[in-house]
Amino acid sequence: MKPETGNFGLGMFKFDFSGHISFGHTGNIDGIFAEICYFPKEKVAVAYFSNGGIYPRNEVLTGVMSIYFNMPYTIPTFKVMRLDTARLMHYTGTYISKDTQLKITITADDGILSIAVPGQQAFPLQPLSNNTFESKMLGATFAFGTAKGMFTITQGNKTFNYSLER
User: Within this chain, do residues 64 and 91 fall inside the same structural domain, yes or no?
Assistant: First the structure.
């Protein structure tokens, strides 16, 4: 099953983590993610399973392997900052965009702002400031404008403008 040439084998892939070679496989369905990789030189295996977690798996796996290989790594705090729910209520509603067909619903509960797209469960956004939030899972930043009913999503080098659905 191990790749003989190139990066693909019969069910296994070759991964390189800072010069440390491993072989393994990943899988993802319905928000459930699994990955396993084996480092033959070090005789160590890393297995990961997530059921709907919002923390990006790549950061978790990078942390685990960085610690194992004695590379610099800072363990995240996983603290959720809560903001005033009354302030967050200014951001709630269903939003649409001319940039994409995706409708987004923003809700606030107990000082936490959450986002949902049709057919998926809502998940919390981490505040960076009073009007800027992030989702590490999506690799996106959500910036609410000074005018009620508008926000911008920045994901990579793309920006999407949203306004309240009327």
Answer: no
